[in-house]
Amino acid sequence: MAQPRFGIEEEYFFTDLTTRRMVGSPEPRVIKACRAALGSAFATEMFQGQIEVASPIFSDFIEAEDYLRNARARLINAVQPFALGLLCAGSHPLADWREQLATDEAHFQHLFKTYGHVARRSVLCGLHVHVEVTASVDRVRVMNEVLPWTPLLLALSCSSPLWDGADSGFMSYRQTYCDQWPRMGIAPLFADQHEYDEYVAQLTRIGAITQPCECWWGVRPAARFPTIELRMTDACPRVEDALALAAFFRILVAHASAQARPGSTYDPTARAILEENRWRAKRWGIHGRFIVGVDGACRIEQWLALAEQRFGETAHALHLPALFPRLREIIAKGSSADRQLAAFDQVLQQPRSKRSALFHVADLLLEETAAV
Asked: In its UniProt record, which GO terms are filed under biological process (predicted)?
């Protein structure tokens, strides 16, 4: 089996280590220090208080793990002299979107001008994974084969239960908020790459988008690389969770690429079930019941067991035999959203303020982000 190359992008919030709040506008020396620590892998984000690590291209997960752990360590060391920390999660428990300032770059300024309040409130961080697809294989057909499994990845990644200083009622509020943007949920049903390209070209012609990368669907053919890109998953505080989800997505893409007719069973009904499962994942995370096969709703443990049956050989071929035990561990011990809510509720049961509870969650996330 082909060993597809891949890349990982992680987003982080700058966090004041005294107040535990997201920083609205870090001083220029902070950005300079981060850029020096990461070189070309450093990237700015929509808000000045966010940054991204865009990894180099990897061939195996040993080098991916080494890189991500080292990148986090270098960044944390770079910001410590400024009394700052890095927090990696889908949402920041003590971020106030009203205090966040847009990054002064043309691309980001265009987003704020075009999408207004939707852009200004989008203070969120994701985990993005690129997996290579060979030129002889239709990327959209591969995407269609992979898509029905993606709510499983979302449920495992959930890390944004707190929003605007309160329990949002969702395990991934980030994905709920993403639905306020155009072209940021599940892509319409496209038969193949040609049909996809025609649609994107039409959007460009009418001025709906200025460039293909403004199609931000949760899974998409990347505009600049020969990859399928996963964008649905929340940023992961624990680096080992980010690596496990990246490995799972790589397995899905590799398996789909090896099929004679990838995506052949992805039809309007399958897409409707995908939408329902995505809703269940963002609302209940690993505690949801999902529509899988003809037997109706099943627990996430059952869905993961089906995934292991389907993709176990591919996992071994890609030298990832420990992946599924790691994913079962996330379910057994709880996702980041579970840990955050437990920490939040623990403090609220005491005669202390909600602010103290949010502070406690921020401490938890800072600690997990730094445990490299």
From this structure: modified amino acid biosynthetic process
Contact, 290 vs 297, CB < 8 A? yes
Instruction: Categorize the per-residue pLDDT at 350 as very low, low, confident or very high, splitting at 50, 70 and 90.
Output: confident
Assign residue 116 a region: left if phi > 0, alpha if psi is -120 to 50, beta otherwise?
left
Assign residue 346 a region: left if phi > 0, alpha if psi is -120 to 50, beta otherwise? alpha
Tens digits of per-residue pLDDT, 121-133? 999 999 999 999 9
Look at residue 43 and tell me if it is in a domain: yes
Q: What is the CA radius of gyration of the chain?
A: 20
Distance in angstroms (rounded) separating the CA atoms of residues 330 and 310: 20
Q: State the pairing for strand pair 127-132/162-163.
A: unpaired
Q: What is the pLDDT of residue 351?
A: 76
The Cα–Cα gap between 351 and 338 comes to: 22
SS3 310: helix
pTM: 0.97
Residue 100 lies in a domain: yes
Q: What CATH number corresponds to the domain at position 212?
A: 3.30.590.20
Q: Which residue has the tokens 């939408």?
A: 275
The tokens describing 4, both together, are 């597809």
Residues 6 or more apart whose Cβ sits within 8 Å of residue 32: none
- Cα separation of 276 and 337, whole Å? 20
Give Cβ neighbours of residue 70 (< 8 Å, ≥ 6 apart).
372
Pick from 155, 135, 290: nearest CA to 226: 135
Number of domains in the chain: 1
pLDDT band, very low/low/confident/very high, at 100 (cuts 50, 70, 90): very high
Strand, helix or coil for residue 132: strand
CB neighbour burial string for 300-320, b if at least 16 within 10 angstroms, e if fewer: beebbeebeeebeebbebbeb
Inside any domain, residue 286:
yes
Q: Print the domain residue range for 337.
A: 6-370
